[in-house]
Amino acid sequence: MIIKEFPPFEGIHAIVLPLTGFGDLITSNMFVLGSGPVTLIDTGPKYPGALDFFRDGLNKAGFDFSDVERIIITHGHIDHFGLASEIIRSAGHPIPCHLHKNDAWRTLSGYIRKGYWSEESSVFTRMAGMPEKAIVRMERRSAFFKNFCDPLDEALPLEDGDTFTGDGFSLKTIHTPGHSPGSCCLYEEKEKILFTGDHIIKHITPNPITEVHKSFLGDPSYKSLLAYEKSLGKVEDLDVRFAFSGHGEYIDNLKALISRYRSHHEKRKLQIVESLTDGARPVYDLVEDLFPDLPDNEIFLAISEVFSHLEVLIEEGRVVLDHNGPPALFRAVV
Q1: Pairing relation of β-strands 169-175 and 184-188?
Q2: In this model, does residue 1 exceed pLDDT 70?
């Protein structure tokens, strides 16, 4: 899929890396701000050839690795920080990397070395009723993803309200948990551009991913979709001309897109309640109802989506946990 070019702004350059192996994300978008030295927002994954692609993008904007002054990572998923260590090595000087403290554990050597899997992952997938063969496939796939990043063990803690300035730009950090606990957007007030990471994406509804690694969280009661819906309210009233997301095309109708997200979430909740009216069922059964032709590599995201909606439905009193399991069984309140 070919996407439209990002609108040109002096001192804001988009480097758009074609992305494969990450579902329907299409591209990994990195943004270079300033006239030198420059600030980099996100780095993309460590794909074969990605570093050369990034170098070419920098050169086209009139810069080189040595011009990178800082890296701001919108959240701790590998397609947003994977290339950071290689960029730092190529620069030949230290480059501070800023990442919200709630996602910092995702980039650490110890976590990556274990292949993004833990006993908590196994407990969650069995709770959801996922077949053992599917669990094994997912564990192997998780381990494979560590090939797309190098660890960042010394990321600096990014906080809500932090500001970053450079020649021609000023960024304000907005903590927008939901897609991950540490997800952040960055607002450039002069040009009215919101850099959204994966909080807002034009061509898909971002997945508020269920956080199964509860032991890593500052708030173990964190619920992804509840947090996400609250975070939408933090950005929808900003004066935004364009939203530049981490994947796909830029957005010029932010409020309308947020309205579409909310409609999607309500529709999904209604579908889940309808599927539970005839009796208690596990999450995996609901996934098969809602996504009958789902590829194997997207099963976890589907389970995550259904479970996050169940958490909201339980808060709303429309669904109850009928049996702890495994597998856990949920039923509609009628």
Answers
A1: antiparallel
A2: no
| C-alpha separations of 119 from 123, 134, 214, 262 in Å | 6, 16, 11, 33
- Any domain includes 3: no
* Model confidence band, residue 114 (pLDDT cutoffs 50, 70, 90): confident
Look up tokens 């909606």; give the residue: 309
Reference 5, options 228, 249, 181, 187; nearest CA is 249
Reported as a single tens digit per residue, the pLDDT across 267-310 is 999 999 999 998 999 999 999 999 988 887 788 889 999 999 99
Q: Does residue 184 register a pLDDT over 80?
A: yes
CA 321 to chain centre: 28
Residue 1 lies in a domain: no
Residue 281 DSSP label = B
User: For residue 177, is the peptide bond before it cis, meaning its omega torsion is within 30 degrees of 0?
Assistant: no
The boundaries of the domain holding residue 304 are 268-332
Strand order in the sheet with 27-33: 12-18, 27-33, 38-41, 68-72, 97-100, 156-158
Across residues 309-331, what is the average pLDDT?
A: 95
Is the pLDDT confidence value at 41 over 90?
yes
Q: How many helices (H) and strands (E) does the chain have?
A: 10, 13
The total number of structural domains in the chain stands at: 2
If asked whether residues 42 and 174 sit together in one domain, one would say yes
Q: Which of 261, 293, 313 is the last residue of a domain?
A: 261
Residue 227 in any domain: the answer is: yes
Query: Pairing between strand 38-41 and 27-33?
Result: antiparallel
Is residue 119 domain-resident? yes
